[in-house]
């Protein structure tokens, strides 16, 4: 009884502190230089504001891109129907500052909103910490750490010990000069084992210059054709693809998430994931080509936007941008029917440097063919599926850790999706 009363008192005190804090700090501020909230907006609905899409009136440069995220909590629905408590990011780009708290609270998305940039972009990312609505006793800060990004300034690196972390009710704008293409990923770096297990993980990748040239112009001796897309600046067209799919592999420990909402000691030493997922869903939710319905607990806010259904026409080259931000284990992902060619690893084109030092493009080609890839936390690979000669039909991409083809106790689920070839 004493404990219960104490907990209630703590919650009430924390709530008052939170309300007081948000009122007195008033610190939600979306910093996007040249952005005119009365005129500008996310016209193409990609969740970002781009100067070269005409979405920022007076940008500092033509490659300026802005985005506004919140960090907080919310719920997702596992493929077996269980509502699960998460920490996460949500996208509030372009919202008036005075609506950010109400829209960002209980809106945590899993995976986090995807970030798609182009080589040469200057990226302004504002993060507002809206607090944990279900855990007013928690005062956790959040950050954005762009994994694998060569950050010149540790201030913007998001590692709390070496930079700034963002307290409840506050906003920080990160700045990135995007110099390298490839498949990256991002996550909150505060109490990383906890905040990452709880869901603060997102897809992030950068298109290479080779995609962005005018028709007929060349880069590294390679002539560009409008509309053609490549994974890297390969100089020979060998990373060409028709369509690309970000695939975040990972898993949740349901008991850890339950302990987190019921204010129990967190079982770090026993962390044992029982929901293996692709883009935050277990099969068959992975092939649901729409956002999943909003969990009841979220008050109607949708939290699972990304599916993993892969579609193409026979002959297509399909690029899979696979990343793993899981905190517990390695996973293997296999495509037994459609050959995989690994062309990139951890944001690097798989090619040796040129022994003459004349340039990396002249090095030895290190691509390899396989039918499975194995990734630990923090690793990424770029895989091209070549569907030449593949008969139309349904194929599977799944983990060969066969016990993870399940949604907790429900069999035939977990880390699996379908490839539909027309
Ligand atoms: Cu966090």
Question: How do the helices and strands line up, and which of them pair or pack?
Answer:
Elements: H1 2-25, E1 49-50, E2 64-77, E3 83-91, H2 100-104, E4 112-118, E5 122-131, E6 145-147, E7 171-177, E8 182-187, H3 192-197, E9 201-207, E10 218-219, E11 222-223, E12 229-230, E13 240-241, E14 243-252, H4 254-261, E15 275-278, E16 310-312, E17 317-324, E18 331-334, E19 340-345, E20 348-349, E21 368-370, E22 372-375, E23 379-386, E24 393-399, E25 406-407, E26 410-411, E27 416-421
Parallel strand pairs: 2-5, 4-9, 14-17, 16-27
Antiparallel strand pairs: 1-2, 2-3, 5-7, 6-8, 8-9, 10-11, 12-13, 14-15, 17-23, 18-22, 18-24, 19-20, 19-21, 19-23, 24-27, 25-26
Bound molecules: copper (II) ion.
Features:
Immunoglobulin-like, disordered N terminus, 4 helices, globular, mainly beta, seven-stranded mixed beta sheet, binds copper (II) ion, 422 residues
Explain what you see.
The protein is mostly beta strands and 422 residues long. The chain has one domain: Immunoglobulin-like (Sandwich). The chain has four helices and 27 strands. The protein has helices spanning 2-25, 100-104, 192-197, 254-261; strands spanning 49-50, 64-77, 83-91, 112-118, 122-131, 145-147, 171-177, 182-187, 201-207, 218-219, 222-223, 229-230, 240-241, 243-252, 275-278, 310-312, 317-324, 331-334, 340-345, 348-349, 368-370, 372-375, 379-386, 393-399, 406-407, 410-411, 416-421. Strands 14, 15, 17, 19, 20, 21 and 23 form a seven-stranded mixed sheet that branches. 46% of the residues are buried. Residues 1-24 have low confidence and may be disordered. Copper (II) ion binds at residues 71, 87, 142, 188, 190, 195, 200.
């Amino acid at each position: 009884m004493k404990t219960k009363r104490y907990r209630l008192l703590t919650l009430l005190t924390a709530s008052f502190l939170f309300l007081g804090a948000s009122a007195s700090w008033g610190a939600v501020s979306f910093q996007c230089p040249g952005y005119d909230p009365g005129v500008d907006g996310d016209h193409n609905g990609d969740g970002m504001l781009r100067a070269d899409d005409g979405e920022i009136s007076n940008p500092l440069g033509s490659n300026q891109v802005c985005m506004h995220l919140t960090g907080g909590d919310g719920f997702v629905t596992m493929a077996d129907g269980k509502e699960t408590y998460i920490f996460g990011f949500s996208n509030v780009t372009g919202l008036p500052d005075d609506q950010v708290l109400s829209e960002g609270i209980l809106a945590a998305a899993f995976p986090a909103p995807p970030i798609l940039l182009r080589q040469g972009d200057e990226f302004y990312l504002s993060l507002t910490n809206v607090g944990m609505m279900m855990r007013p006793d928690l005062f956790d800060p959040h950050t954005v750490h762009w994994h694998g990004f060569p950050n010149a300034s540790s201030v913007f690196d998001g590692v709390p010990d070496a930079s700034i972390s963002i307290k409840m009710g506050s906003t920080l704008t990160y700045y990135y000069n995007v110099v390298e293409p490839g498949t990256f990923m991002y996550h909150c770096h505060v109490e990383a084992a906890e905040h990452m297990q709880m869901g603060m993980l997102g897809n992030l990748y950068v298109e290479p210059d080779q995609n962005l040239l005018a028709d007929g112009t060349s880069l590294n001796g390679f002539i560009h054709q409008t509309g053609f897309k490549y994974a890297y600046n390969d100089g020979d067209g060998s990373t060409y693809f028709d369509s690309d799919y970000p695939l975040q592999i990972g898993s949740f420990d349901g008991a850890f998430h339950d302990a987190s909402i019921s204010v129990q000691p967190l079982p770090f030493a026993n962390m044992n994931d029982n929901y293996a997922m692709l883009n935050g869903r277990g099969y068959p939710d992975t092939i649901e080509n729409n956002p999943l319905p909003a969990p009841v607990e979220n008050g109607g806010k949708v939290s699972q936007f990304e599916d993993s259904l892969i579609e193409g026409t026979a002959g297509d080259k399909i690029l899979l941008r696979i990343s793993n931000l899981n905190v517990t284990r390695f996973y293997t992902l296999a495509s037994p029917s459609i050959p995989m060619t690994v062309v990139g690893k951890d944001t690097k084109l798989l090619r040796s440097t040129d022994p003459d030092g004349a340039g990396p493009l002249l090095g030895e080609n290190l691509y390899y063919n396989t039918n499975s890839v194995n990734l630990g936390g923090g690793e990424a690979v770029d895989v091209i599926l070549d569907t030449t000669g593949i008969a139309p039909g349904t194929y599977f991409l799944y983990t060969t850790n066969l016990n993870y083809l399940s949604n907790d106790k429900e069999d035939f689920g977990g880390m699996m999706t379908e490839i539909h070839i027309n």
